[in-house]
Specification:
The chain has 245 residues and is mainly alpha-helical. The chain has one domain: MetI-like fold (Orthogonal Bundle), CATH 1.10.3720. It is built from ten helices and no strands. Helix 3 runs antiparallel to helix 5, helix 4 packs across helix 5 and helix 5 packs across helix 7. The longest helix is centred in the first third of the chain and has 33 residues.
């Protein structure tokens, strides 16, 4: 039986699509930990990136931290995190939590860098025009800078999400589930169909994530939308509140 036949046979086996260790449940585990990791990274990196881009302060420090985060191997981060996370939760601390920590560390740099770069590159004339209209700094950030920088910001989120999906498979080495479980178990059992079936599933999920967020990027760049940078501050900014209204 060649590799393609073995992979197809494994994927089409009804037993692989049922039960706790079936493909749907493993896929759900993978999506859940990836979503939680991305959400935490967004809550940390996005506000920081927007603030740095708007004020221009702390860019060098942010770039240094982002480069440090990129240089850390995810497998090493998982191993380093385990002694700490097991004290938080003796059960999940040796499996899910260290994987979660590694994915957050992996996702922060692209989100942070793209957020502050996108905001910093907004046309200064637009910003000064907004200030001339009496807009507050918060209104300038949310009404002018963020809509114009949205495609760049989404690019960082897309990069982070794809990396998370692809790298979350490493958690299976330390006992976590997800689609990586098929790779680890397949190698242990010398089951090439399971190994490459798992690889195909991870690749499909990563490509699907890339395409989905890529579509959002294209929409943000479409003419007539706020993210294309073609609208004036008066068009994209919220109107000042009228006293008594």
């Amino acid at each position: 039986m060649n590799l393609v036949t073995a992979t197809v046979a494994w994927l089409t086996n009804p037993a692989q699509w049922a039960g706790q260790f079936g493909i749907p449940n493993r896929l759900l585990e993978h999506v859940v930990i990836a979503t939680i990791s991305l959400t935490i990274a967004l809550l940390i990196a996005l506000p920081a990136g927007l603030a740095i881009g708007h004020t221009g302060r702390g860019a060098a420090i942010a770039a240094g931290l982002a480069n440090l985060g990129r240089s850390l191997p995810s497998l090493a981060v998982i191993a380093i995190a385990i002694p700490v996370t097991v004290h938080v939760d003796p059960v999940l601390g040796g499996t899910a939590l260290p994987t979660l920590v590694a994915m957050v560390v992996l996702a922060i740099p692209p989100i942070l860098v793209n957020a502050y770069t996108g905001i910093a590159e907004v046309d200064r004339d637009l910003i000064e025009a907004g200030r001339g209209m009496g807009m507050l700094e918060r209104q300038i950030l949310t009404g002018i800078e963020l809509p114009v920088a949205l495609p760049v910001v989404l690019g960082g989120i897309r990069s982070a999400a794809v990396q998370i999906v692809a790298t979350a498979t490493l958690g299976a080495i330390f006992g976590w589930g997800g689609l990586g479980r098929f790779l680890v178990d397949g190698i242990a059992q010398q089951n090439d169909g399971e190994v490459f079936g798992g690889v195909l599933l991870v690749g499909t999920l990563a490509i699907g994530t890339e395409v989905a967020i890529g579509l959002l990027e294209r929409l943000a760049r479409s003419p007539g939308l706020e993210g294309d940078g073609s609208r004036s501050p008066a068009e994209i900014a919220p109107r000042p509140a009228v006293p008594g209204m």
